[in-house]
Every structure is written in structure tokens, then in C-alpha cells.
Amino acid sequence: MSQLNPRQAEVSGAFTRFRIMAIYCGVMSSLLWFVHVPTHYLIFQSSHHLFAWIALVHGFTYPIYVLAAFHYCLKARKSLWYTIGFILAGTLPIASFIAERRAVKEFKSLA
């Protein structure tokens, strides 16, 4: 593993937690939007209870993603609008993956 500069070392713990939660939240959000919602409202209305766990798990873990995003943005000294964008990225299926990639790119460029 390469050496981290002091700025990266200061942010690395919050960055790692954010990455894990962003990927997890992206997967759960994708399952929610593309499995749970269609089966609940469109396709298998009688068997939607089989996928009810998706909404439950996503609902309980989204606040953890919010805290991880807030902590990362606080440590990385991001603006309020940037922080709000990262927090809202957990609500759309692909947006948290994009936010995670952006965070990786910015983490690598920290000096």
C-alpha cells in the first residue's frame, strides 16, 4: 500500500466508511427500485411480500449511509451543497455509485 499524505490520512477512515456505505446503499437502492417496487405495484402483486425485506433493510441502513456521507464531507471540508448532494445520492439507484467514484477521485487528488 502506498504512503498516505497527512491530508489523506486525516480523511481515510471516513472515506473508507463512506465507500462501503455508498456501494451498499447503491445495491440496496437498486434492489428497491428494480425488484421491490415493480413486484409490489406492477408484476406480482400477490407475491410482493417475498421482497418486503428489501425496503425494510434499505430503510434501516440508509441513515447509516447519511451519517457516513456527512462525516466524510465534514472531514474532507466539503461545502454544504456538496454534502447535501452526497446525502441525496443514496436515494437514487445509480447516484451513490457515482458519488463513490467522485469521492475516490477526489481522495486520490488530496494534497
From TrEMBL:
InterPro entries registered for this protein in UniProt: DUF3817_TM (IPR023845)
Membrane topology category: Multi-pass membrane protein
Domain DUF3817 per the UniProt entry, residue ranges: 16-104
Annotated Gene Ontology cellular component terms: plasma membrane
Pfam families: DUF3817
Record flagged with keyword Membrane: yes
NCBIfam families xrefs: integ_memb_HG (TIGR03954)
Protein name: Unannotated protein
Taxonomic source organism: freshwater metagenome
